[in-house]
Design brief:
This is Aldehyde dehydrogenase. This protein is an alpha/beta fold. The protein has helices spanning 23-40, 45-61, 63-74, 78-96, 133-146, 161-172, 187-196, 209-220, 244-256, 276-288, 308-315, 350-353, 369-377, 392-401; strands at residues 2-8, 13-20, 106-107, 112-120, 123-127, 150-154, 180-182, 200-206, 225-229, 235-238, 268-272, 322-326, 340-343, 360-366, 384-388, 406-409, 428-429, 442-450. It has 2 domains: 2-230 and 426-450, Aldehyde Dehydrogenase, Chain A, domain 1; 235-416, Aldehyde Dehydrogenase, Chain A, domain 2 (3-Layer(aba) Sandwich), CATH 3.40.309. Helix content is 38%, strand content 21%. The structure holds NADP nicotinamide-adenine-dinucleotide phosphate and magnesium ion (MG).
């Protein structure tokens, strides 16, 4: 077994090391998970529910510890990190309601009785990226466990600490051994075994579209179930009739939150031409005032990028681009980058088209509703987006026309654990969260009982 150094992105310094599993250790863990499945699926629904609620309570008891780990390991602001740990607790509580409600149907047929069951799949492999280590882990393991599956989870190499801690807290809460195992290691080793090992019956992957496609192709070999949450290049569409003050005040947070390392980032700002200058005049002070500070500072709105490589990649988008204005960032160690607004010359600009995954917004004017919809949809992605208007009819028309999975009107928030989340087009496949997520962690079994009539 090797090890991986864990770096504080606010300083660039190594502060701990964690194990990095090889393929034999991964196989052994998957075998243990497959064995544990036999027992876990037979735990009575009410007992499984109680264990998940207990897990949520233990997460709550360790909320500050988990949040501080994420500040250190991922550079998340303390405010965000507390929300993220709280989200794990909430998602566990939400899906704790599921084991006792996972009912099938009784369907009228001739000659007997027909019933359906939602059977768990077996071992579920969850592959987590570095941008939201806690929530993305929880969106996978909470419904997977609730439905009666056992889980092996691979955190990103850059951000393994909160996942490892959640694995320990699950045991502390009383989940049986090997029901939920966290396996730190490389994507090409641990993650790949989830794809190729026949005992893993489903892979939930969040990360880049490129790796997501290779995982989907690999899963085809065993017709393995797959959920994909991939990249985005979402549009924030501001119509002339919108509350421009509110839209401009909210726009920085919609793209700079988590230093723009958010698949839902509204990184394409489409502004109706008749209010373009007026809107930019309101946006500039909001961008300059965005507080990029030490992420452990309670008033910090944005921390550093995750790595030196990510900073180099983000910087490359400024080459030859028209810079509108920038905010500020601390200098010194760590992977800091200031909030940046670029003016797109056309929809062909590289910074307009590619997912930057950093604190960079691109702005482009549009003439009318039709052009706004055409520009918003001119991308291979389709994850989130926002529409700012006071016209209810337009809000609904444009919501139906924009091809993305999670839209908001007069708001930039797309994640609520009660509601489905996921992408259209190349942003993903399947939906997480909400009332329907259970169905992607179960298979329907139909049973006909002849009654001799
Ligand atoms: P990535 O390579 O897609 O990594 C995501 C996860 O997949 C990590 O746990 C990674 O492990 C694992 N992985 C990598 N290659 C794998 C393979 N062949 N088989 C199985 N698992 C594998 O993403 P990244 O390199 O960290 O980031 C690159 C870009 O992807 C970002 O700049 C951003 O544009 C996009 N991204 C999007 C999201 C999102 O939420 N949609 C999240 C993260 C990144 P390792 O950590 O060991 O590599
Ligand atoms: Mg990668």
């Amino acid at each position: 077994m090797g090890t991986t150094d864990v770096i504080d992105p606010a300083t660039g310094a190594v502060f701990t090391t964690v194990p990095s599993l090889g393929s034999e250790e991964t196989d052994a863990a998957i075998d243990r998970a497959a064995k544990a499945f036999g027992q876990w699926r037979r735990v009575a629904p009410g007992d499984r529910a109680r264990l998940l609620r207990r897990f949520a309570t233990v997460v709550e008891e360790h909320l500050e510890e988990l949040a501080l780990l994420e500040v250190r390991n991922a550079g998340h602001t303390i405010g965000n990190a507390r929300w993220e740990a709280g989200n794990v607790r909430d998602v566990l509580n939400y899906y704790a309601g599921a084991p006792e409600r996972l009912s099938g149907r009784q369907i009228p047929v001739a000659g007997g009785v027909d019933v359906t069951f939602h059977e768990p799949l077996g071992v579920v492999g969850i592959i987590v990226p570095w941008n939201f280590p806690m929530p993305i882990a929880g969106w996978g393991f909470a419904p997977a466990l609730a439905a009666g599956n056992t889980v092996v989870l691979k955190p990103a190499e850059l951000t393994p600490l909160t996942a490892i801690r959640l694995g320990e807290l699950a045991l502390e809460a009383g989940l049986p051994e090997n029901v939920f195992q966290v396996l730190p290691g490389k994507g090409s080793v641990v993650g790949q075994r989830f794809v190729t090992h026949p005992a893993v019956r489903k892979v939930c992957f969040t990360g880049s579209t490129e790796v997501g496609k290779s995982i989907m192709a690999g899963c085809a070999d065993q017709v393995k179930r797959v959920t994909l949450e991939l990249g985005g290049k979402s549009a924030n569409i501001v119509f002339a009739d919108a509350d421009l003050d509110a839209a401009a005040a909210a726009a920085p947070g919609a793209v700079f939150d988590n230093a723009g390392q958010d698949c839902c980032a509204r990184s394409r700002l489409l502004v109706q031409a008749s209010v373009y200058d007026e809107f930019l005049a309101r946006l500039e002070p909001a961008v300059r005032a965005f507080r990029v500070l030490d992420p452990s500072d309670d008033s910090s709105e944005m921390g550093p990028l995750i790595s030196a490589g990510q900073r180099a990649s983000v910087s490359s988008y400024l080459d030859g681009a028209d810079l509108a204005f920038q905010g500020t960032a601390p200098d010194g160690g760590g992977w800091w980058f200031p909030p940046t607004v670029l003016l797109a010359r056309s929809a062909a600009d590289r910074h307009w088209r590619e997912e930057i995954f950093g604190p960079v917004a691109s702005v482009l004017p549009f003439r009318d509703e039709d052009e706004a919809i055409r520009l918003a949809n001119d991308t291979e992605y389709g994850l989130s987006g926002s529409i700012w208007t006071r016209d209810v009819g337009r809000a609904l028309r444009v919501s139906r026309a924009v091809e993305t999975g999670a839209l908001s009107v007069n708001s930039n928030s797309s994640v609520r654990y009660w509601t489905p989340f996921g992408g259209m087009k190349q942003s993903g496949l399947g939906r997480e969260l909400g009332p329907d997520a259970l169905s992607s962690f179960t298979d329907v079994k139909n049973v006909f009982l002849a009654t001799g009539e």
